[in-house]
């Protein structure tokens, strides 16, 4: 019997409930894996129905159609003479499980239910599934008729077992099980399992990829073995982007790396490895071998099939490689761009419209669209027929070939500078120049007529005319007049999105892009139902700090020199009157805090799970060189007042690309009340008491009230 085994990990751009497309991508991946010599093909988690089905998992239709696709896969000629490992939901004894179905030559070998469910952050698996809590226990699963007709089997093994082929032993993990402190691969490895597989539905977060890679490599560093990880990729219907990164590792080293961001719907990673390298690696780890002698064995499903061949001495073996990680700026450039392309082609719209203000946020959004155009042109140049077909559908031209990103951008991207009497010539010029450099179809318009008409209606009805504070108005008047401008821009954005292609003699409509960053959303520094209200927002989960770094990246890599003046200008909403023709309003002055401070508040609030008092306690140490305890208390109180007053805005937040673990997205990631007692009386009193104790200890007078 041979020693060299060839395995394949697949990254597939599956789409929730797209059973036809999902089945096609699975079959293509199996065919590619076989053509490259693989004897075991592993796909992403829940790949048959798509991971993001959410409450559709409750529907019997989802289970039915998953079995129909399974039957199609079992019958396919492409799926013969290769062990296929696919993911789908199914029900066993009236309990729904997230499962792997492993089959060979029209016979199901094992149904392996997930044992540790992901239930944090964006994950809600316990809402739809039950974990299999019977370790090392196997039951009989009665197959539905449509599967019995194909396999000739009435029942198949269901539970926690491993596969024993004629040359090795294979154990299964599913996504979260790798991240759990008691991962199954630990005891499986001690029981002689040599190949571990993991099917994931893991989404992109900035700076997360290295954690996943480290977990996979560490899984085999202590215990030896081969680890094969497959992951979904793309936008499958919501805010998440699944970032592929299929990989194969052996004895603690990466031997094959898949792409994190690409427009390929099907990516197959294949590696050939020597089983004797695993055995010799394990042989000298005495602590591992002592533990193995006491392990409780797993049920073994015998499979009369080998992953190797008898004559494999000349087969080239994969060697360790160095994993190449993207920088955060590259991740921002590529991840949201791929997400936008998936959303555009799957929504069957003709492009995007962006209100381009000449500031950092809208400019960063424009750069991401430009990056998308780059990715499309590059994919077409590399022979991706699917991307070419999608591009032709988007532009409604069956002969079109996207070659120049700027030319493609002109077809699919409209930018619009919406000036008012409070806008400066500088921001107008910046927006115009950036639009020229990326190639977007650019519109300049003035909203003053619409604003005056709306304020005029109010004046006719009430007999009162509000005015800005610089003209003697109160804060309520000042804010209301700013909000009218912002909301008029939203109405005009949607009007132009629907009709601008009509005016150009082109078919279709445009998706409106929002450009509020994660920090502004957290603080509530936006007008409800203004230009932050859009169809989707590619930067809504990205901090201002990271966006500035991304802008610098675009200057250097896309030669967008217009961004230099945008970077140098202070962020401003330009909603208040100019002073001597110059902008007097700035974002940080309006907010009463800096973007750098906002980023810290956001991470402490969400990631560190800090309420007002805990945040104060952490910051008096973090900022002890720059702020007194009293100043820290004032800053923390101001943040929580503003956060709680504006939390209601998160309920209408535009769906945004999820990129940060401190996102305030109210949809499912950051679940909080939106009506707070904004005085925080008990919490703030605890802070006050602590400040008094600290000042007394330092000999400072405490007579002054704390804001």
Automatic annotation (TrEMBL):
Pfam families: CN_hydrolase, NAD_synthase
Keywords: ATP-binding, Ligase, NAD, Nucleotide-binding
GO CC aspect terms: cytosol
Residue ranges of domain CN hydrolase in the record: 5-275
Pathway stated in the Swiss-Prot or TrEMBL entry: Cofactor biosynthesis; NAD(+) biosynthesis; NAD(+) from deamido-NAD(+) (L-Gln route): step 1/1
InterPro entries per record: C-N_Hydrolase (IPR003010), C-N_Hydrolase_sf (IPR036526), Gln-dep_NAD_synthase (IPR014445), NAD/GMP_synthase (IPR022310), NAD_synthase (IPR003694), Rossmann-like_a/b/a_fold (IPR014729)
One BP annotation, GO: 'de novo' NAD+ biosynthetic process from L-tryptophan
Signal peptide: none
UniProt EC number: 6.3.5.1
Presence of keyword Mitochondrion: no
NCBIfam families: nadE (TIGR00552)
Subunit structure comment from the entry: Homohexamer.
Family: In the C-terminal section; belongs to the NAD synthetase family.
Name listed for the protein in its UniProt record: Glutamine-dependent NAD(+) synthetase
Species the sequence originates in: Odontophorus gujanensis (marbled wood quail)
Organism phylogeny: Eukaryota, Metazoa, Chordata, Craniata, Vertebrata
